[in-house]
């Protein structure tokens, strides 16, 4: 049975599904999106015209790669760049190339719990930046930092891009940042990507694209449960429904049962009943403003050193310093 590690807890798909669908307000954890088909669909999402996040962060790195390098190297001439959840590395590659071209003394340590992702990333970087000093770490984030701390001789910069921090509930995002900050040493930095509050329609369109790719991405959860738990979800009986609350900045995605129905999860001897119009909450994608970001940094004992924005100020990469 598939097991995925998030933070320091291991969940099997069976446990996560059973736990989430037995709650009064049904929910599924968003890590469940990312099986092979989910990874493929997420790549498509990142290339959709509505999904502005990818281009914004790409533009920020293109425009400010030298400012980022100067900020880091004004204090140290040797450092480690530790990236959490690097994905395909397309955006990080901009920074890495620039650093290498400028003879920067650094090593790149991408961290991912998926061995496959790490291998693909290493192949890509070795091809496109042959001089890059790269040491992938196939671990969850906190143990990767612990391992690094045991043997380190130089400062580190931790990168967590793509707006991934928005996929945590706010409280969990804060405790995630607190935990990372606690493992950093004075002078280390944490660079975080935050998607910002903006025209609500634009946000809704990013999670409900005209081509229906995000719908497929969400529906793939049902397919995954059918495949891995021998369940009998009928996708046509569910509706993809994203919402955005402009006051809190919270985007939520739901799969909504369009009829009263029972679903059999045969592999785990479980029957789940749905009322007509009952939702399953499948994802949170929090949008931020600078007040929220400053508060998060302060609570974690970090100081905000610099905000880098794209031209339209849709997205920001924030450098925080311990
Ligand atoms: C990975 N994460 C930042 C994406 C987001 O925007 O919340 C996941 C996603 N879900 C639907 N579209 C993209």
From TrEMBL:
Start and end residues of each Histidine-specific methyltransferase SAM-dependent domain: 14-321
SUPFAM superfamilies: S-adenosyl-L-methionine-dependent methyltransferases (SSF53335)
Keywords: Methyltransferase, Transferase
InterPro entries: EgtD_Methyltrsf_superfamily, MeTrfase_dom, MeTrfase_EgtD-like, SAM-dependent_MTases_sf
Annotated GO biological process: methylation
Any one Pfam family match given in the protein's UniProt record, by short name: Methyltransf_33
MF-aspect GO terms: methyltransferase activity
Keyword Transferase (UniProt): yes
Family annotation (PANTHER family): ERGOTHIONEINE BIOSYNTHESIS PROTEIN 1
The protein's name: L-histidine N(Alpha)-methyltransferase
Source species: Marivirga arenosa
Lineage start: Bacteria, Pseudomonadati, Bacteroidota, Cytophagia, Cytophagales
């Amino acid at each position: 049975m598939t097991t995925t590690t998030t933070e320091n807890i291991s969940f099997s798909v069976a446990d996560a599904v059973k736990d989430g669908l037995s709650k009064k307000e049904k929910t599924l954890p968003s890590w469940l999106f990312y099986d092979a088909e989910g990874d493929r669909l997420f790549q498509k999402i990142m290339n959709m015209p509505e999904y502005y996040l990818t281009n914004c962060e790409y533009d920020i790195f293109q425009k400010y790669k030298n400012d980022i390098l100067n900020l880091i190297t004004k204090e140290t001439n040797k450092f480690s760049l530790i990236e959490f959840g690097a994905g395909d590395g397309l955006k990080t590659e901009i920074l890495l190339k620039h650093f290498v071209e400028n003879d920067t003394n650094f090593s790149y340590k991408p961290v991912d719990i998926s061995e496959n992702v790490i291998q693909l990333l290493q192949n890509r970087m070795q091809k496109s930046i042959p001089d890059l000093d790269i040491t992938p770490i196939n671990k969850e984030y906190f143990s990767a930092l612990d391992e690094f701390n045991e043997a380190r001789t130089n400062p580190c910069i931790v990168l967590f891009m793509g707006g991934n921090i928005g996929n945590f509930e706010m409280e969990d995002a804060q405790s995630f940042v607190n935990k990372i900050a606690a493992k950093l040493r004075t002078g280390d930095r944490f660079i975080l990507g935050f998607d910002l509050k903006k025209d609500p329609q634009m946000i809704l369109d990013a999670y409900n694209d005209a081509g229906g790719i995000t719908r497929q991405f969400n529906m793939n959860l049902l397919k995954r449960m059918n495949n891995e738990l021998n369940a009998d979800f009928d996708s046509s009986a569910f509706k993809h429904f994203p919402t955005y609350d402009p006051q809190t900045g919270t985007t939520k995605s739901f799969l909504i049962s369009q009829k009263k129905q029972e679903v059999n999860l045969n592999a785990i001897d479980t029957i789940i009943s749905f009322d007509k119009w009952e939702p399953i909450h499948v994802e949170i994608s929090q949008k931020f403003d600078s007040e929220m970001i400053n508060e998060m940094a302060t609570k974690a004992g970090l100081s905000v050193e610099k905000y880098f924005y794209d031209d339209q100020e849709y997205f920001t990469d924030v450098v925080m310093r311990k």
